[in-house]
Amino acid sequence: xxxxxxxxxxxxxxxxxxxxxxxxxxxxxxxxxxxxxxxxxxxxxxxxxxxxxxxxxxxxxxxxxxxxxxxxxxxxxxxxxxxxxxxxxxxxxxxxxxxxxxxxxxxxxxxxxxxxxxxxxxxxxxxxxxxxxxxxxxxxxxxxxxxxxxxxxxxxxxxxxxxxxxxxxxxxxxxxxxxxxxxxxxxxxxxxxxxxxxxxxxxxxxxxxxxxxxxxxxxxxxxxxxxxxxxxxxxxxxxxxxxxxxxxxxxxxxxxxxxxxxxxxxxxxxxxxxxxxxxxxxxxxxxxxxxxxxxxxxxxxxxxxxxxxxxxxxxxxxxxxxxx
Length: 324
Ligand code: PBG
Description:
CATH class: Alpha Beta
Bound molecules: ligand PBG
Shape: globular
Structural class: alpha/beta
Strand order of the largest sheet: 1-4-5-8-9-10-11-12
Helix content: 25-40%
Radius of gyration: 20 Å
Order of helices and strands: HEEEHEHEEEHEHEHHEHEHHEH
Strand content: 15-25%
Largest sheet: 8 strands, parallel, barrel
Number of domains: 1
CATH topology: TIM Barrel
């Protein structure tokens, strides 16, 4: 048989495959999300996220040191607000002595070079578990944006490198950018959750922070998963308003969106491999139905190949170890 081209030549052995690999994961691709709790020596394993913990600040610092030693350069902080601090204004979220603000300071103090990103959204602070202030059963946009601005400023004041609004209110990126400028936080970046879909894959995260919506769902602010063009509109508007990095979330059911966003923008694109995506792999591996290590690397590589420059993932530490 005569063939002019034999594509298998470039797949013949590991050496040649590594020579022609188009997508290579590296530790600095990853953003490690961290769940933080009050107290000391707390390490609570999240039931729907086996192997993932919510820790008090002391344990979080040990974890951040380990992540840094592995070559991971950024973390994304989420806090579990105490029940008695929750209300319908979110005011605990801009308390200068709040858990988030104390955590930012302690981490920047311990590992100054780690890029500290912070979640900006009201849901952990909301009695209703929503990302917006609720009036007459509705999640109201503009008062929520005012709260998000105060929250962002307090994170910046505590030393956050990048604030990451995950709420999907209209106009919040512009409002936050303007406030950062006015208050001379000219080094604080914004990573916008630009195309964040109303997804069932956030379930385990809401267990981790006890932040499930008390009524209704998030469909009046998070995007409809039927939509693609809208993702580009949202993302371009966020960039126009001042976003430094944009995000698509979740990741694996939205690889098409990641690619389209990547092709449409000139800023770094991140993707959030969310809690439900973590839980699925863990569950299948526990049943013996999937090889966890292989699944992790295949999933994360596919997200990078789709166009993500950065990947927020609960597998960050595992992946770096697997990469060797
Ligand atoms: C809250 C927020 C959520 C996630 C990140 N920030 C949950 C939600 O929108 O309900 C989900 C992350 C994950 O599932 O891993 N604004």
